[in-house]
Amino acid sequence: MSDAELVLRSTRVITPEGTRAATVTVSAGRITAVLPYDAEVPAGSRLEDVGDHVLLPGLVDTHVHVNDPGRTEWEGFWTATRAAAAGGITTLVDMPLNSLPPTTTVDNLRVKQEVAADKAHIDVGFWGGALPDNVKDLRPLHDAGVFGFKAFLSPSGADEFPHLDQDQLDRSLAEIAGFGGLLIVHAEDPHHLAAAPQHGGPKYADFLASRPRDAEDTAITNLIAQARRLHARVHVLHLSSSDALPLIRAARAEGVRITVETCPHYLTLTAEEVPDGASEFKCCPPIREAANQDLLWEALADGTIDCVVTDHSPSTADLKTDDFATAWGGISGLQLSLSATWTEARARGYGLEDVVRWMSAKTAALVGLGARKGAIAPGHDADFAVLAPDETFTVDPAGLQHRNRVTAYAGKTLHGVVKSTWLRGERIVHDGEFTEPKGTLLARPQ
Ligand SMILES: [Zn+2]
Predict the structure, then answer these.
(1) 313 CA distance to ligand 1 middle (Å)
(2) Least buried of 183, 367, 399, 436, by fewest C-beta within 10 Å?
(3) What residue ranges in 202-274 does DSSP mark as E strands?
């Protein structure tokens, strides 16, 4: 047996080959071996036996809006990464908007990195942004280590982050394809949104009608056409419309390089249950009907949807008014994403292995970190969540770590209690107690 500083043992370790009783050895922050359960513990190493709790790879959440600096009263790196750690997430990739400055130049990236560096409780990477006027900044951002570029096809809600029209998208995507980068897209078509009835007010049905499925479907159709023509790699963010699934399946079948994510709130909450005026449920695209949700689950199971990410996008509580038209759109899900997704997954007959694939392995692969994150396997970072999958808890907003404790999950009873979270071999949270920040800043592997 190899030398090890730390040995973790569980009757249920989720590995890429399946779940088994195993002993995992760790040295210098990396997994060195996954051994039989009764393997001898090397002299001098520290044994952590978690019994029947499940040892799973720390989750990799590639869609988080931290808002720091600039809108730190909405969310900051300290609070967001604590919430993530409490929820079993060990890596996040920060979205380029809602902070000031947005991550649209290398100088701006440096500002963000400086702010994040000593506040990150988990590992943090950055997406860049593609704006109408920053095509010249895309290559330098790519070289500086952003994981790809986010673009909106309809207004983003942040004035400093304008959306791309069809020509601008074409120019940005051609540039990004030229250096082998990845474009990630908020896909709602602005013309379909403008044509939809805009009643405003507190009725959820009116809000839902204002963000129709065909806005997503049309934007995705156009994106597929451009990806095909430019041989570009594109990723659809936060898919909500199940009507777009056949389009995506057909594009994949003909070799278009497209991947897709959805979010816990689309998988676990339904339009039918959103109370009028309850804008903690507002996000764009919106939470749709139960029948739509069933099709999203089918698409996850068959691989049409690759992964599940939070799209954690908080604001101060005062911006969550009871008017769905003007309330801030965004759901804060970091701390609850694993438990919420697992609760619904188990009810639908899926296993924790599936959840780990959607929320850790596939997201790590999306950003090119698959050799280092997202698996309990030799050579990977020793990032773990220890989960009691059958224990339940009722969501109390007071127990949440993100800055503004607004949540769409208040009062829900969820399965899956995160007992501890480990980052590169160090336990960073244990029964609600956090260490000092141990996170590092990540760059896209060159
Ligand atoms: Zn987002």
Answers:
(1) 6
(2) 436
(3) 233-236, 258-262
Ligand 1 center–CA 266 separation, angstroms: 13
pLDDT band per the 50, 70, 90 thresholds, residue 417: very high
Q: How far is the CA of 312 from the centre of ligand 1 (A)?
A: 7
Report helix, strand or coil for 66.
Answer: coil
* Lookup result for tokens 């038209």: 325
Tell me the residues surrounding ligand 1 (ion) with CB < 5 Å: 311
Q: How far is the CA of 1 from the centre of ligand 1 (A)?
A: 45
75-113: pLDDT as tens digits:
999 999 999 999 999 999 999 999 999 999 999 999 999
Show Cβ contacts of residue 43 under 8 Å, excluding neighbours closer than 6 positions. Answer: none
Distance 75 CA to ligand 1 centre (A): 14
From CA 100, how far away is CA 71, in angstroms rounded? Answer: 7
Q: How far apart (Å, rounded) are the C-alpha atoms in residues 410 and 389?
A: 20
Centre of ligand 1 from the C-alpha of residue 98, in Å: 10
Ligand 1 center to residue 97 CA distance, Å?
8
Q: How many angstroms separate the CA atoms of 337 and 345, rounded?
A: 12
CA of 127 to the centre of ligand 1 (A): 11
Please report which helix (H) or strand (E) contains residue 392, including its range: strand 384-394
Does this model's pTM top 0.90? My answer is yes
Identify the residue whose tokens are 């156009």: 222
Does residue 148 come out as left (phi exceeding 0), alpha (psi in the -120 to 50 range) or beta? left
Q: Are 54 and 85 in contact (CB under 8 A)?
A: no
The dihedral sign for the CA sequence 89, 95, 97, 103: positive
